[in-house]
Structures are given as structure tokens and as C-alpha cells.
Amino acid sequence: MTKNTIRSRDVQSRSLNFHVLEAGEDRPGEDPVILLHGYPQTSHMWRHQMPVLGERFKVYAPDTRGYGGTDKPRTRLDRSILARDIIDLMDALDIESARIVGHDWGGIIASAAALKYPDRFSRLGLIDTLVSVWITWGIHGYWFKCEPDAEDFFKKHHRDFIRSTLGGEDTPYGGPPESPWAPVEGSEGSAALADWDPTQFWDAKDVKHYENAFSDPGSWFHAIEYYRHCLPFHVSTPDASAPGGVRFDFRSNQEIASMWHHEGLIFSHPEWNDNFMVFAPEDWHLKFEKPTMYLFSPFLMPQAFVDGQLPPDDYVPSGNAYADSFPHHFPDLRARGAQCGHFIPEEAPERTNELLMKFLTGEI
Predict the structure, then answer these.
(1) For residue 112, what is the domain's CATH number?
(2) Is the pLDDT of residue 345 over 90?
(3) Has residue 178 been placed in a domain?
(4) Which is the most buried residue in 136, 139, 211, 286, by most CB within 10 A?
(5) Is the separation of the CB atoms in 286 and 329 below 8 Å?
(6) Is the dihedral of CA 358, 359, 361, 362 positive or negative?
(7) Domain with 24 in it
(8) Count of structural domains within the chain
(9) How many CB atoms lie under 10 A from the CB of residue 191?
(10) Does 194 reside within a domain?
(11) Confidence of residue 270 (pLDDT cuts 50, 70, 90)
């Protein structure tokens, strides 16, 4: 067995029993790398990165709370709990400081951990993710607030969801208001999805892994919990009298659900597409001063890809609340693009590996 072979084990922290993949060997005095997966995946999503990074670092990739082989305690959650989970895992592994990288929900957790516990991290890598502001075109963030819509959907379609999202099968369910997971007829996104072939990136074994992992009702519970309660939506308004010059007005889950079920669908609601919802107002004043890299795709930063071309290195998109949240929280920010879909580590593994290695070693 070589040092960069991916290995599997369980790690008991003070809060959870984690399933963890690891690669590489211990390097005393050098920060290891922690990789956090996104939704609806598991640590398996890092299969292309771990052997490469393992040549240079000790690498850990846990299944986060509720996913894969990690505990599923079915408790009310918020971002602080998810961030503390990572600190507890580091403590259990006797890691004082780490380089941390997260994709999608893994990036939300990684950024929360770095902002709340900056002394525990030396570098932060963010891949097609969010920090404190929700994107308006991410309509699933609104759908997850709807109870029992999301619960009923996953009871019926949990396997169909994985097979269609990652396996390329036809969806047996519709778009809004039934779900956000099927194209909306006539929308720009429908045309883009028509040209996207997931079978290029996930073979039958990969799809089966994710399908089996997401067939556990505990995973549906936590997927819903992450979106429903860890992302409390607030409308932000400039206000000179408020701390930091911004006022945050909370929107309850019921109010967000009413937007989803608005006559004419969410797209006709006056607060959709006019307000980027802030989901971390308590962290608005926090900054992580250490090196940070954001690797993004046209899915989250379409304005950065002019005529389908990669943006220049260190071009930081701006002009909306979501894009502006990155330099707001990360003063030492570098940015790179990837010409692929949202699942960058799996869709563009060579680009991901090259940039992560350069960033984590300090070359960029």
C-alpha cells in the first residue's frame, strides 16, 4: 500500500463518530489538508484529489454530519454546530492547525469554521460555494424551507434524485412547484442542462455509491436541516444607524415557503431576484485574514466567463451581494475559474488538482 492510497476509518470526536477517508503520511510540523464534500455527495467526491494531494500532504476527507458513514443524530442544526464539528474532528485527530478546502456545502462549513476559529486554519480553499449570501438563482434554497414539501419529495424520489442529477436518467418528477430539481420549461437553465452529460464524470459505481448513501432517511433529514435551519434568510438594507451600516430583516421559513408557492411561482414574487438573501448576519463583521482561494464555475459566477472563456487569474467577480461577499470576508483572496459545471472536483479534476496543489503549497 503506497502512502497516497485512499484509506478509510472511523474517528470518534466529542460530538460525532465520523467516517473519514485519508491519504498521505504524517508530516510533523506541516499542516495537513482537510477536504469537505458538498451536497448531495460524500467524501467519495474527493477520489480524484486525495491520491494527488497525498503525495505532498497528509489528507483527511470526512463525511460531514448526516452524510455517508458519519453519525446522523437528527437534531436541530445551525452553521455554528457544523463549524464546531470540524474543530471537534481536528481535536480528535490531534490536529492543531490545518489547511481546509470545501466544495458547495463543504465550503459553507469550511468558511464558517475559518471565520469563527481563524487560529485553527492556515489556508482556506473554497470551490463553487457560498459564504454568507445566498444566490437568487439557487431556487432550491427556497424550496427546502417548505415543510413538508421537501420531506415528501425525498421519501418518494431520493433514488430518482441521485440517478437524474448524477446519472443522467430522465426525471420522473417536475420542476417548480413540485421540486427545484427539474428544468423549468422555457428557462435559460433548461437549455444549458440539455447540453450537460453527467455520465462523463460519474460512472455506474459512483452513482450507486451516492444513491446508496442518500437512501438513508437520516441523510434526507440532514440535507433538509442544513438548508432549512442553517441558512436563515435575511434581507439586507443599508442603514447608517445599524452596526456595520447594514440592517438585516429576518424572513421566516413560512414566509420563504410562501414565496415558493406564490401565484405564478417564485419567479414572480417581488422579493425574488431583487434581494440576495443573507444567511449569516451574525458573521457579517468577521474576516479570515489568511490566504484564501475561490475556485468558481459559470454555475455560480456566470458574469466572469465572457464569450465562454476562462477569466484572468485573480479576477474577482463583483457587482452583486453574492460576489462581493468573498472580498468582504477574505482580504487575502485569490480567484480562479473552471470551465465546467458546479461539481468542479469531479468534472474538472485535473484543473482542481493543479490549482489546489499550487494554492496549498503557497505558489498562488
Answers:
(1) 3.40.50.1820
(2) yes
(3) no
(4) 139
(5) yes
(6) positive
(7) 7-132+283-360
(8) 1
(9) 10
(10) no
(11) confident
Under 8 Å CB-to-CB from 359, ≥6 apart: which residues?
123, 125, 291, 293, 334
> What mean pLDDT is reported for the chain?
93
Residue 86 identity = I
Q: Is the pLDDT of residue 332 over 60?
A: yes
In a domain, 140, yes or no: no
Q: What is the pTM of this model?
A: 0.95
Rounded to whole angstroms, the Cα distance separating 11 from 33 reads: 16
Residue 260 is assigned to a structural domain of this protein = no
How many whole angstroms separate alpha carbon 332 and alpha carbon 291? Answer: 5
